[in-house]
């Protein structure tokens, strides 16, 4: 049975339909990557699943329960945790305090301070440091750890690698295995196509608010994803799409 079901979702920013008629499902234990150009609607979709943005139409279900009308904190209690783009840590609080803030809405489960540090060894020794003084990668580990502290069933990661050095991205992605072994299902937005195809079991590609590709990562070629990414199967290639944000894998 699917853990997350999204049916005919429409999410608007004023008159802009940022997410249009989006439907997909994520099975328990799956890693699903959402890719797409800037402005395709990926973050809006993630925020809608987390309850940070109420959809205009459609339905979001978690393990068969309709959570569409639930507010964000109720969805955390139900098992959905979002690591937002930009991390949004409390810069003046310590790492430990940032992590413990989340435990107020903690569900029962395997994640606690020790488990987070074990999953992100780079946080070892940093618990008493001010979050605002950490490097970008360390802050991202705290942001993911904070979400894990709620013991989510579904972890939503929005562009966790943005602006980080490749070696740091490798370190963060190395921790994904530990996260999955803790029973957490992951839906992630990832701009680096190579990494998305490498880590995910399924890839969803969004274009102008719609899902234009939803395929098992092992059954889709990089070219097919790039075509969907830029809408090349349609009549014209938009000029703005030539400013490619698809990052090439190292040769
Ligand atoms: N708070 C907002 N108010 C108005 N428009 C918004 C808001 N947030 C996003 N948008 C618009 O909605 C569309 C989808 O944006 P969204 O951030 O979801 O896309 P994205 O695929 O995550 O892009 P990016 O990779 O740049 O973050 C864009 O046209 C964007 O300008």
UniProtKB/TrEMBL annotation:
Which branch of life, at top level? Bacteria
| PROSITE patterns the UniProt entry points to | ABC_TRANSPORTER_1, ABC_TRANSPORTER_2
**Does the keyword 4Fe-4S belong to this entry?**
no
Q: What InterPro entries does this protein map onto?
A: AAA+_ATPase (IPR003593), ABC_transporter-like_ATP-bd (IPR003439), ABC_transporter-like_CS (IPR017871), BCAA_Transport_ATP-bd_LivF (IPR052156), P-loop_NTPase (IPR027417)
| Taxonomy of the source species | Bacteria, Bacillati, Actinomycetota, Actinomycetes, Kitasatosporales
User: Where are the bilayer-spanning segments?
Assistant: none
Q: Which organism is it from?
A: Streptomyces ureilyticus
Q: Mind telling me what this protein is named?
A: ABC transporter ATP-binding protein
The residue ranges of the ABC transporter domain are 4-233
The entry sums up its family as follows:
Belongs to the ABC transporter superfamily.
| Keywords recorded for this protein, A-Z | Amino-acid transport, ATP-binding, Nucleotide-binding, Transport
What molecular function does GO assign, one term? ATP binding
